[in-house]
Specification:
heterodimer, A: Rossmann fold, Rossmann fold, 2 domains, 6-stranded mixed beta sheet, 18 helices, globular, B: 317 residues, MetI-like fold, 0% strand, MetI-like_sf (chain B), transmembrane helix (chain B)
Chain lengths: 508, 317
């Protein structure tokens, strides 16, 4: 047991408030230590302390020790640490150049290249050489993540801090990330995993520290923690999600939304084909699939945000115009969309309640005063009350903003509400409460059809029907219980299996 | 890449259209000015009959659109027409004036880029500290001084008081390279304001870039300060500066009239002033074509550089 990094009695204070208080972490070579907790619990601050990075103006006390100061970092958004103006390989080449400086001039170039390729293969980027010539924005999120990991491996870091490496990823990608981090640990590197994704933590971690409000409330070996959590907060965090919110209301008479012979393109390439799809009034349809399978394109076609398609989208039997601009007010109000990134969906300079009320003014012609009252009502109905909603969006957390976005969409009194990955990127507790909100919405608005775009099978379980997309093709559809318990298409099988596997691995 | 290529072609076509519009506008404006070349030539004896005769001899009595069409037809096979005043081909005016202007512009740019970028990076490295405050306040101060005032000041001190440098280029003709001393003051005056604006832009961009997560990441992995600043931060900082540089070069190639007049340098600016004074429409039009084309090409170049430096942004227009 070689301790390669240690944090003792760390306290980080900003603006007179301690965001991390009295945290002790010991990282051992070849072992994975996980910090879990809701967003804002101090995980990232603790992780960044290992890198010697603190929030601006923070007061820091305590001790942070690393063996040779070399700590690798894989941030939540790996794109942020890749230089947008340089090709992807720029930093790797520069690191290798520093390392080969002592060699004879003639050998340097070949040796540097050798090192870069070795690091890439360790990070499971075997075809890395072509990749290095691209710009960061031309790489997928997964490739960016592996590239950043390769940088840490090339530097020879003894410790790697991985911040939310699986947030917003589908089950198959998650499994790849899990394998990859396990492989990093096998190479004798200590991994500090910051995550609120409990499946992944369970599958990977040797040691778990549960954080809340800047304190470690419980720590111990993963097995012990999972099977006998001592602290009530740990128990709440680990509680299995409630079985999906009761039987859904019976579907109304005719389908409210239908899709016929839809073929959507991006430029010249067909990205989605959907022959028949229908959503009954009050029904709930989950669209599942990996990232890039065409889920979002389907949703955007329905909402009029993607014009480049053939075939029809029918609302109450009447074809909707393809373009948002060509849709009437009533049509706009009937199909509402809630985006994945709630923060980007709000103007940061206007009070949230005004932005929510605007829907009623614009789409239903309600007078501003009444719209504001309705907006406050709708927000309160989703659990948002008090002063913060009268201020800017930066006063609300990600989960609260997503509720506000839901309230804004519902205020249009839509017949169809499209939710695009609205729970990804949220921690377990917040995600669960948002799912409760959705279930409650279904009860209070029984006539509203709901479309959930998701790669999370837990979310899909909320729906009455499931459609599975793979590579732009509609590979399976049917009642939720049937599809998830007896998947027929090989892709659906693999999707449910990987989810099960992630959980199963964790139990071993 | 094909996207970029078709974009370049579209931009060039658009640029040709813009140049044609500039030429039309210039023609219309010179037509609208009171008097014409005949009046100027008649000089001290403004006898209406004499003016009419001159007008007829110069074919100025023909309708404006015919003269414009003739001139445009000539332009298509490279003929800029002949000067109304001297009967010399316009192209010789352009060629004569272009030499000194190009020389001044070239020297200025060659000194401008390293100085401006260097000062900007220096100030950004010491953000908020003495060096930054010194650079920032000096550049702001110098930027506020107009060229003619700065030029007069330099001539007074270095040419008239100290006698180190010639005050003007009078007597050297277009052979300025043979008399480098005469170039020092004009180049310094030309440099003064562009260096300031460039340095301030680079400083702002560098401060952002040095503060970015990708630079912090590269620093964490042990890259040297020089490499960090020039290879990783600077490429992100110079995109706005590239646009400013294109505008500066364009301004220089237009023949900076104030500076040429002050130092009596026979560049394009001087040619332009004389041609306007003499109502020498073909020369003015020829200059409009040259200025228009150089503006189009330079801005295209700057956009290509910006595209290379901010590959995410894609291409527009």
């Amino acid at each position: 047991m070689t301790v390669v990094a240690e944090i003792r009695k760390l306290r980080v204070e900003t603006g007179g408030r301690a965001i991390v208080d009295g945290v002790d972490v010991r990282l051992v070579a070849g072992r994975i230590t996980a910090l879990v907790g809701a967003s804002g619990s101090g995980k990232t601050t603790t992780g960044l302390a290992l890198l010697g990075a603190y929030p601006a103006g923070a007061r820091v006390s305590g001790e942070v020790r690393t063996v040779d100061g070399l700590v690798g970092y894989v941030p939540q958004h790996p794109g942020a640490v890749l230089n947008p103006a340089r090709r992807a390989g720029a930093l790797l080449h520069d690191i290798a150049r520093v390392q080969t400086r002592a060699m004879p001039r003639a050998e340097r170039r070949a040796a540097a290249r050798e090192r870069v390729l070795h690091a890439l293969s360790l990070a499971q980027l075997p075809d890395g050489e072509t990749l290095l010539r691209r710009y960061p924005h031309q790489l997928s999120g997964g490739q960016q993540q592996r590239l950043v990991l390769a940088q840490a491996l090339l530097v020879g870091a003894r410790v790697v801090v991985a911040d939310e490496p699986t947030t917003g990823q589908d089950a198959l990608t998650k499994r790849r990330v899990v394998d990859q981090l396990a492989e990093v640990a096998r190479q004798g590197i200590a991994v500090l995993l910051l995550s609120h994704d409990l499946d992944v933590v369970q599958a990977l971690a040797d040691e778990v520290l549960v954080m809340r409000d800047g304190n470690v409330v419980e720590s111990g070996p993963a097995d012990r923690l999972w099977h006998a959590p001592r602290h009530p907060w740990t128990r709440e965090l680990l509680a299995t999600p409630p079985a999906s919110a009761g039987p859904a209301p019976a579907e109304g008479a005719g389908p409210v939304l239908q899709v016929r012979d839809l073929t959507a393109r991006h430029g010249g390439t067909v990205v989605l084909r959907a022959d028949v799809l229908s959503l009954g009034a009050g029904g709930c349809l989950a669209v599942v699939g990996r990232s890039g399978s065409g889920k979002t394109t389907l949703a955007r076609c329905l909402a009029g945000l993607h014009r480049d398609h053939d075939g029809d989208v029918l609302l109450d039997g009447v074809p909707l115009p393809r373009s948002l601009r060509a849709r009437s007010r009533g049509q706009l109000a009937s199909v509402q969309y809630v985006f994945q990134d709630a923060r980007a969906a709000f103007d940061e300079h206007r009070p949230v309640v005004d932005q929510v009320a605007r829907t009623a003014v614009r789409l239903r012609g309600v007078a501003p005063d009444r719209a504001r009252a309705e907006a406050l009502d709708a927000l309160a109905g989703l659990g948002l009350t008090g002063e913060p909603v009268r201020r800017g969006p930066d006063e609300l957390s990600g989960g609260e903003l997503q509720r506000a976005a839901l309230a804004r969409a519902v205020l249009a009194r839509p017949q169809v509400l499209v939710c695009d990955e609205i729970t990804s990127g949220l921690d377990t507790v917040t995600r669960r409460s948002l799912l409760d909100v959705l279930a409650a919405l279904r009860r209070t608005r029984p006539d509203m059809g709901l479309i959930l775009i998701t790669h999370d099978l837990d979310v899909a379980a909320l729906a009455t029907h499931v459609v599975v997309l793979d590579g732009g093709e509609l590979v399976e559809q049917g009642p939720t219980r049937e599809v998830l318990s007896r998947p027929r298409h090989p892709f659906t099988v693999s999707l449910t299996e990987t989810s099960a596997l992630l959980t199963a691995r964790a139990r071993v | 890449m094909s996207g970029v290529r078709s974009w370049v072609v579209r931009r060039l076509l658009l640029g040709l259209g813009q140049t044609a519009a500039v030429v039309l506008l210039v023609f219309a404006l010179t037509e609208a000015l009171p008097g014409d070349a005949a009046v100027v030539l008649a000089g001290d004896q403004p006898d209406p009959d004499r003016i009419a005769a001159i007008r007829e001899a110069m074919e100025l009595d023909r309708p404006a659109h015919e003269r414009l069409l003739d001139w445009a037809a000539g332009l298509l096979h490279g003929d800029f027409g002949t000067s109304l005043v001297s009967d010399r081909p316009v192209s010789t005016y352009l060629a004569d004036g272009f030499g000194p202007t190009l020389l001044l512009a070239g020297l200025t740019v060659a000194l401008l880029v390293p100085t401006g970028v260097g000062l900007g990076v220096l100030a950004a490295r010491h953000e908020g500290r003495f060096v930054d405050r010194l650079v920032s306040s000096t550049t702001l101060g110098v930027y506020a001084v107009p060229e003619f005032a700065f030029g007069v000041l330099l001539i007074t001190v270095f040419a008239l008081r100290l006698g180190w440098l010639p005050p003007t280029a009078v007597g050297y003709g277009t052979d300025l390279l043979g008399h480098p001393a005469a170039l020092v003051l004009p180049v310094v005056v030309l440099l003064s304001r562009p260096v300031c604006s460039l340095a301030r832009l680079v400083r702002a961009g560098m401060i952002d870039a040095l503060d970015s997560p990708y630079v912090a990441h590269a620093r964490r992995y042990g890259l040297s300060g020089v490499r960090l600043r020039y290879a990783h931060a600077l490429p992100n900082a110079v995109a706005p500066a590239a646009q400013q540089l294109a505008r500066t070069i364009d301004w220089l190639l237009g023949g900076v009239i104030v500076v040429e007049a002050l130092f009596v340098i026979p560049g394009l600016g001087t040619v332009l002033i004389n041609a306007v004074a003499e109502r020498d429409v073909p020369v003015v039009q020829g200059l409009a074509v040259v200025f228009g084309l150089s503006t189009v090409v330079l801005n295209l170049g700057a956009d290509l550089v910006t595209h290379r430096l901010t590959p995410r942004a894609g291409v527009a227009a």
